[in-house]
Design brief:
Layout: H1 3-8, H2 10-78, E1 84-89, E2 95-98, E3 114-118, E4 127-135, E5 141-147, H3 149-199, H4 215-265, H5 269-299, E6 308-311, H6 312-329, E7 333-338, E8 343-346, H7 348-365, E9 370-378, E10 381-388, H8 398-401, H9 420-430, E11 434-439, E12 448-455
Parallel strand pairs: 7-9
Antiparallel strand pairs: 1-2, 1-5, 3-4, 4-5, 6-8, 9-10, 10-12, 11-12
GO molecular function, one term: phosphorelay sensor kinase activity
Keywords: Kinase, Membrane, Phosphoprotein, Transferase, Transmembrane, Transmembrane helix, Two-component regulatory system
Domain Histidine kinase: 243-456
Length: 456
């Protein structure tokens, strides 16, 4: 798959969407957990510091500044390794008791909690802490707080763990997206397989239902109902077509036989010429009827039971042998080329008739010169083409030329019914292939080629 088509693939976009949604939801969840954890850790530190401040303030209320200093020193001495921060200072900020050497700059006694980094007297490194300062009734200052270094380390550990979880979630999310895409692709593939079989003419195929009742089930049931209706209509059309062909063929055959007897019995040359002209028209009608019936049958998928292994090279050789003398009589030279393994499963008679129609068209519409039958291997199967040196069909008129009874204005003076290319197209579709019309097939000035591309 080419890079541009790869990026435009619905499956790839679906995988990317599911992957992005899973990763996005995981990131949002982890961010929410990190935010909640950080808030809880901060609130825990604030609660501890607030309890310490309340205890020290109660000591001041009971015994004034001496009781406050004594309580502060006792609190520090009782738990020397604790994370408490205490400082009692006079109104000028000079230290009276506590584990801070001096009043920290920028901290106002307004009762607000703030995060700062300071040295405690018993520590040889700066520590992150949250503190709150207040002014006592006698003008002294009290600062109480709690070191949050441990909380920060715990928070960093939680963030590292979340990053590890996110890295682990990446392959899991990708695998989940791919599995989801596989499930959806599997449901769509069953529909596509059935549609492809119907497109090639197997109207009996139906999409299997699993009873889930979901949107895919509803779609499959709707398509199956549509296929039931199409199969019914095609069957009715086939019956009508076969009956009509049979009913028309019999009187036309009798008419032709009667004309031939009349030609043999008449002694008048003018009458014989007129009767022969009518007989030729009857022959043309019979041929048109037979070709139209073959097209209808091919489009309805009739004939797949007669598929056999066909050697395309041998078939081209037979066509060149049969049509070669006729082509030479009209000033053409029939050539063929097929190299390598050219065996495919095909309806030999219909495929041969389609190629014969193309050779006949080349002799009708092309300039005298070479007519080349050639077969080549393609990545998807085999391409069989008939090329000539004629002007071909302009691109804007090719769709009309492929229709039944489609005849372009320059060709209306030439005998024919406009069914040749229609039959070729129907035969290609019967085999699951397609027909391509290409101007200047060899990269030279002029020329035209009709190519039948078949799988296999």
């Amino acid at each position: 798959m080419r890079p541009r088509n790869f990026l435009r693939s619905s499956t790839i976009r679906f995988v990317a969407l599911v992957f992005a949604l899973q990763i996005g939801s995981s990131v949002l969840l982890l961010l929410a957990v990190q935010h909640i954890a950080a808030g809880e850790l901060r609130q825990l530190s604030v609660d501890i510091a607030d309890e310490l401040r309340g205890d020290l303030a109660a000591s001041f209320d009971e015994g004034g500044l001496p009781a406050l200093k004594a309580r502060a020193q006792a609190r520090i001495a009782r738990s020397p390794g604790d994370d408490v921060v205490v400082l009692v200072a006079d109104g000028g900020g000079r230290e009276l008791a506590g584990n801070l050497g001096a009043w920290p700059p920028g901290v106002k006694p307004d009762g607000e909690w703030r995060a700062i980094t300071l040295y405690r007297v018993d520590s040889d490194r700066p520590e992150r802490m949250i503190v709150s300062a207040s002014r006592m009734a006698d003008g002294s200052l009290l600062l109480a707080g709690h070191v949050v270094e441990g909380s920060l380390q715990l928070r960093a550990t939680v963030e590292e763990a979340m990053a590890s979880v996110l890295l682990l979630a990446l392959p899991i999310a990708l695998l989940g997206a791919m599995l989801a895409a596989r499930v959806v692709d599997g449901r769509i593939a069953r529909i596509a397989t059935t549609v492809q079989a119907v497109r090639t003419g197997d109207l009996s195929r139906r999409i299997p239902l699993d009873g889930s009742g979901d949107a895919f089930e509803t779609l499959a049931a709707g398509i199956n109902a549509m296929l039931d209706r199409i199969e019914t209509l095609v069957t009715e059309l086939r019956i009508v077509t076969d009956g009509l062909a049979h009913d028309l063929r019999s009187p036309l055959t009798r008419l032709k036989a009667g004309l031939e007897r009349a030609i043999a019995e008449t002694g008048d040359d003018m009458q014989a010429t007129a009767l022969q002209s009518v007989a030729n028209e009857a022959e043309t009608l019979l041929a048109m009827l037979g070709t139209a019936l073959q097209i209808s049958r091919a489009e309805a998928g009739i004939g797949r039971d007669r598929f056999t292994d066909v050697d395309v090279a041998a078939m081209l050789s037979d066509i060149a042998e049969v049509y070669g003398p006729v082509a030479e009589d009209h000033g053409f030279r029939l050539e063929w080329d097929a190299q390598g393994d050219m065996a495919i499963r095909a309806h030999r008679e219909l495929l041969g008739q389609a190629l014969a129609n193309l050779v006949d068209n080349a002799m009708k519409y092309a300039r005298p010169g070479p007519i080349r039958l050639r077969a080549r291997r393609t990545p998807d199967g085999i391409a069989i083409g008939v090329a000539d040196s004629g002007p071909g069909i302009p691109p804007e008129h090719r769709a009309e030329a492929l229709r039944r009874f489609g005849r372009l204005d320059p060709a209306r003076h030439i005998g024919g019914a406009g069914l040749g290319l229609s039959l070729v197209s129907a035969v290609a579709r019967l085999h699951g292939g397609e027909i391509r019309l290409e101007s200047d097939p060899d990269g030279l000035a002029g020329g035209f080629e009709v190519e039948i591309r078949l799988p296999g």
